[in-house]
Amino acid sequence: MNELFTLLQKIKENPVIYIDKPSITCLDFFVGGYLSQLSNLGLTPEGYPMEGFNEWMQERAKINITQSWLQIILFRSSSEKDAFYNFFELFEKFIKQKNNSKKQEIEDIFRLRQDLMFPRFDIYDEILKGIRKRPGMFLGTNSITRLDMLLRGYSLARREVGILPTEPEREFEGFQSWVEEKYGINSGQSWSKIILFYSVDEYEALHKFFELFEEYLNKNKSLEVDENCG
For the chain, which terminal residue's Cβ has fewer other Cβ atoms within 10 angstroms, N or C? Predict the structure, then answer.
């Protein structure tokens, strides 16, 4: 999957554009949202760059317990930022070793499944359904930043394959300006950063997000009713 390899290089060169800051956790959830959406669209990646990376990291670290590459790199780094750049150094070594062992370059291969016409998982539709009830299942922990990164990766994947926004996704598009107006902020900061700024921590910010988003949706519904009655 050359697209993912190229995307990772772009994130490495300018992480602020994609994930706000050089953070290995933000990178992990952004890529997770990106890949899961491609899979849900029926585009099954074969031979994508990160395939086997987790096993390679475990073997390299010589550990007897199962840990993700994220946990291994983060444990051996001094900070999220340090881990972010360590990831790319390790990933480049992994790619070179992988290419040498297989004697072939990673190719961009997608298989379009025959069931593309079936309904697909819509992460925006799940925000107040599944994610609110089970944030740990989707995010690992209660974190508004992780949710933001997941949504960004998801949306980028959809745009790249030319999928039109769903109704829940279109509803979300106005949330950024609504949050800015509600807090009286026009600094170009993302909705997640604004909410986090006015919260004690990531946990409180995530729960505040759900309350605000529900308020936002209800306000939009009220406006629609008023327009229809007018």
Answer: C
If we measure between CA atoms, which residue out of 26, 37, 16, 12 comes closest to residue 169?
37
CA distances, 27 to each of 39, 85, 161 (Å)? 18, 11, 21
Name beta bridge partners: 152: none
Measured in degrees and rounded to the nearest 5, phi and psi for residue 7 equal: -60, -45
Give the SS3 label for residue 30: helix
pLDDT per position as a tens digit, 173-207: 999 999 999 999 888 899 999 999 999 999 999 99
pTM (predicted TM-score): 0.64
Q: Is the dihedral of CA 212, 217, 221, 223 positive or negative?
A: positive
Half-sphere exposure of 75 (CA within 13 A, CB side): 10
